[in-house]
Amino acid sequence: MTKVIRIPWLAVYAIAYLVFLYLPVLLLPLFSFNDGTIVAFPLKGFTLKWYAQLGQQDTLLQAMVNSLIVGSVTALMATSLGLFAARAYVRYRFAGRELSEGLVMLPLVIPGIIVASSMLVLFISIGLKPSLTTVILGHVFVALPFSVSIMKSAFDDFDQSLEEAAFDLGESVVGTFRRVTLPIVAPGIIASLLVTFTVSFDEFVLAFFLSGNSPTLPVYIWSQIRFPAKLPNTLALGSLLLLSSVLLLLIAEYFRRRSIQSSD
């Protein structure tokens, strides 16, 4: 009897999709070490001079400072809002809960160009000129769904009897939240901070529309890509950003899983 060999087409498709998606990204660090200015094979040689030149560009450093400021403030604001929103969604049942949660998650499905252009019109109409402030407001709107999702997973398995025991012992609501709730969900908070910071730091469309004369790092990179002579420096910078983003997301995933385990 002939044995039929079944090919796992779904697995083949998944592998092919991942290769198609990430192979260009993996080529980015490779060309950043190329001694030539032309991005093509064969490579002319190995060099670190493109990385060394990054610290000598004042505009780049200022753009990086702008991104760090925007990312840090966005992470703090989005995580603070996401913390209380997630607690309300998990702990309480109230009219319009599903609707409000859907509205919070809406930025995940709205095209970025629509959000950016709408926010630009809104901010100009109320007298806010494009600046880092408007970028922060836009990034909080986009990063909030990520924070709520992470914090909900931290609160889902939270044992409410711990808070009730604290109340029975005479602790106040604020004291219970500070001494009981926050320590347990702290890994989720750290994960939310890291993810929302990464989302803000890497975001381009909103920053392009709302940054004005204070470009963030992705906007600066876009402005440099148009000049072939500056492309190697851009590849080096992009490689560093890629590495830092992957590290931040790995750390965030570690704390997210730790938050779930601590809740269990």
TrEMBL record:
Residues 64-252 form the ABC transmembrane type-1 domain. It is found in: Cell membrane. This is Spermidine/putrescine transport system permease protein. One of its GO terms (cellular component) is plasma membrane. GO terms for biological process: transmembrane transport. Pfam families: BPD_transp_1. PROSITE patterns: ABC_TM1. It comes from the Bacteria. Keywords: Cell membrane, Membrane, Transmembrane, Transmembrane helix, Transport. The chain crosses the membrane at residues 7-31, 68-90, 102-126, 132-151, 184-211, 231-252. It is a multi-pass membrane protein. Belongs to the binding-protein-dependent transport system permease family. CysTW subfamily.
